[in-house]
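Ticket closed. Logging final result for Thiol-disulfide isomerase/thioredoxin.
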Amino acid sequence: MKKLLLVFLFIGPIVFSQQQLQEKTYFSEALYFNLSDYNRKADLAYRFNDYEKGKELFENFTSNYLEGSYMDNFKFRNLKKKEVSLYDYKKPVFLITYASWCVPSKGEIPALNELAKQYRDKIDFVVLFWDEHDKVKELAENFSSNISIVYVDERKNNGAYVVKQLKHSLGLPTCFLIAGDKKIMDIRRSVFPPLHTEKETAYRENYIALETSISNNLVKGYDGVYADNVQAE
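Final structure:
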C-alpha cells in the first residue's frame, strides 16, 4: 500500500499536468476546426442581407469556439520597423485590427485614446494595421502615445497563418481582449453608430461598450469611471 501511495503521489501530479497541457487550445487550432462551418452559415446570411443573423452567428462562433482559447504568439513591427512579438507584452492586451482601407467607427479612435489613458498602468493597448509602414505611420498620428501602433505588411510577412487567421477569418476591425497569460477573454466587433449620429454620442457609445468589456474581462474589480465629462476630440 505504501508503494502504491508513493507511486500516486509522484505520478498523479505529472498526469494532471499533462492533462492541463492537452486541454490548452490555441486560437489557430480553434479556428482550424470550426471556421469553415461558420463561414458557410455567415455567407448565406449576408447573401440574403440578413445582417442581424450575421451578427448573431459571429457572436455565437466567437463565444462558443474562440473565447477561452489562447492567442498564438506572432510577430509584427513597430513604427521604428523593429520586430516585436505579441508575447513581449506582459500586461493584459487590448488588441484591435485595422487597415488603411478600413474606416474606423465614428467616435472609436477618441474612445480608444481615452481608455488607453485611463488604463495605461493595467493594460497594453495595441492597434495592429495590416498595411505598409508609410501608410501606418501617417495613420498613427490619430492615436494616443499610450497606444502601441504596429503593423504587418503582407508582402513581407513571414508567418502566413497570421494573415490568414487574424485578418481574413474574422474581418476588420475586430477587437481581442487578451489576459496576461494570453487567454482570449472576449472578441468583439466595433460599434458602428448610424451615419447621422452626433460626434459626441458616437464617442460615448463606443466608450461605454469598450469600457464595459475591458472592466468585465481584463481588470475585474477595477473601479472604472465612465467618461461622463470627457469630450470627444
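Residues 25-69 form one domain. No further action required.
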